[in-house]
Amino acid sequence: MLDFFQKNTFSIIYTFFLGLMPIFASSSISYWLITHEQVVQQFTILQWVLVYVASCFSMAFALTPTTFIALLSGYFLGWNALIPIAISYWIASYLGFKMAKLIDGGRFLSKISEKPKVREILDNLQKDEFKIILLARLSPVLPFAVTNVLFSFSGTKLKNVLTAGFLGMLPRTILSIWLGTQAQEIRKLIEHPSQGSSIQFIIFGLILVSMVGLGYFIKKAVKH
């Protein structure tokens, strides 16, 4: 176990970094947006293009949560934000996956595959990886950047990450944009993004479907 951590220290630290960074970065951005809302309201098309280019990198490297970007997009741009958000998610998935691959270089997968049982479980999971990715992306609580890293480390196919990931993100993206369009004040949107019992029920439903589905496929892989 110690040998495993020593050989994968940087990969493990990078994963923890991606899990913590959204908290700090989104708090800083939220404060700036609350105090500069009128400035953002006046953004030109070019400025919004630059915002989404930046968001590709910020989401890929966990500086901003994907839901946070979708909420703000809905608030400022309404449903016009759907296509830019979808494209940004797709590019962020690619960047996050490739960066993790570059950092790890296959060491993580190689090390855990030394154990025959683990290798067997991974092989079984890969048979259903499209469904697993879709379910992982469906949940609003599973960190986008961290799952990109885990997919990359586990040897998941990039085309499945991009395709299934895109499909899995759509429901929660549409929900987040809609929430943004309904908000009257940006402060309330940021501080209480999921007000309303019906919204909380939908979010809980997405999480439940994701967790139950993932649990099923993991259990299936372990039993085979």
UniProtKB/TrEMBL annotation:
Membrane topology: Multi-pass membrane protein
Domain of life of the native organism: Bacteria
Keyword Membrane recorded: yes
Database matches in InterPro entries: TMEM64, VTT_dom
Record Pfam families: VTT_dom
Intracellular or extracellular location(s): Cell membrane
Residue ranges occupied by any VTT domain in the UniProt entry: 65-181
Keywords assigned by UniProt, alphabetized: Cell membrane, Membrane, Transmembrane, Transmembrane helix
Span of the signal peptide: none
Ranges that cross the membrane: 12-33, 45-63, 70-92, 132-153, 160-179, 199-218
Family: Belongs to the TVP38/TMEM64 family.
UniProt name for this protein: TVP38/TMEM64 family membrane protein
